[in-house]
From TrEMBL:
Alphabetized InterPro entries for the sequence: Glyas_Bleomycin-R_OHBP_Dase (IPR029068)
SUPFAM superfamilies, A to Z: Glyoxalase/Bleomycin resistance protein/Dihydroxybiphenyl dioxygenase
Species name: Streptomyces poriferorum
Protein name from the UniProt record: Glyoxalase
Length: 207
């Protein structure tokens, strides 16, 4: 079964990005490399941290803002749980969320799961593409959303409509240029229909 072994964010200033992600305890979960590839607007993806309760959401959001992130959606309760969205100084969009609506203990600062959501033109076509490359579907909601079974892999992969994803994180859907993201997997090097590039595990060191 294919899965993501690591992901790399391409940033203009690796030292500054390392300080930011270290402050959030994410320096061992994402790789960084320098890039000046042009990009504007929505890069077509978001990263999500799922945590156990609202106190942890607030902890991560507050830490991100203290390190220079920009709030896109304030941490708040909703019908599905509790969460907020920030944009890191390097431009990456992060959503921090929990299905819990009330705290039952002090914040732990623990990350339960790291999820990469790719905003795609066609969820159906994207699903077919990735299944053909060895990924197994875990959840599928027609042409709206698909989540792949990554078992114990460090990053869960899901596909969402590009417009729906932009709305979910609170930014305009328009964007051009580089995604500033590289995925490392065991299925070799390829580029998917929406321009997201994968690299063979032997070519990149995992974070």
């Amino acid at each position: 079964m294919a899965f993501i072994e690591a992901l790399t964010l391409e940033v203009a200033d690796t030292a500054a990005a390392h300080r930011f992600y270290s402050a959030l305890g994410l320096d061992t979960r994402v790789g960084l490399r320098a890039s000046d590839a042009p990009t504007t607007g929505f890069r077509g993806f978001s990263l999500s941290l799922t945590v156990s309760q609202p106190a942890d959401v607030r902890g991560f959001v507050d830490a991100a803002l203290a390190e220079g992130a920009t709030a896109l959606k304030p941490a708040t309760k909703s019908f599905w749980g509790y969460g907020g969205v920030v944009r890191a100084p390097d431009g990456t969009i992060w959503k921090i969320a929990t299905t819990a609506k009330k705290d039952t203990a002090p914040a732990t600062g623990r990350i339960d799961q790291l999820i990469l959501l790719l905003g795609v033109d066609s969820v159906t076509a994207g699903k077919r593409f990735y299944v053909e490359r060895g990924l197994t579907v875990a959840k599928s909601f027609g042409s709206k959303y698909v989540e792949f079974d990554t078992q114990d892999g460090p990053v869960k992969l899901a596909l969402y409509g590009r417009r729906a994803l932009a709305k979910d994180v609170g930014i305009p859907v328009d964007g051009t240029g580089s995604h500033r993201l590289a995925l490392v997997g065991d299925s070799g090097a390829f580029t998917d229909p929406d321009g997201f590039g994968w690299e063979a595990a032997s070519l990149t060191t995992a974070p």
